[in-house]
Amino acid sequence: MIMEIEKLKKKFQKIEQELEKVRGCSVLSHGWQTQKYAKASRKWDELSKEKFNIQKQIEDYEAKNI
């Protein structure tokens, strides 16, 4: 179970790094209604969902471990 938590934490860190790259996404930097903005926005949404799911799994594992 500890190995699973460590794997999830590594994956969580990778997602955080990817989110840092996308955090600068704005209409001013990417342009309004452009493919570049749409792609960055979708990536942000998907990474955020995945981050939330991993965070929930980590909390569940830690709750079972206690």
The helix-and-strand class reads: mainly alpha
Unreliable spans are none
Distance between the termini: 12 Å
- As a whole number of angstroms, the C-alpha radius of gyration is 15 Å
Helix and strand run: HHH
Q: How many distinct helices?
A: 3
Work out the oligomeric state of the chains in this entry.
Answer: single chain
Helix content: over 70%
- Give the amount of beta strand, in percent: under 5%
Count every beta strand, where a strand is a DSSP E run of 2 or more residues: 0
Mean pLDDT: 91
Largest β-sheet summary: none
How would the global form be characterised? Answer: elongated
What does this structure look like?
It contains 3 helices and no strands. Helix 1 packs antiparallel against helix 3. The chain has a domain of 40 residues. It is mainly α.
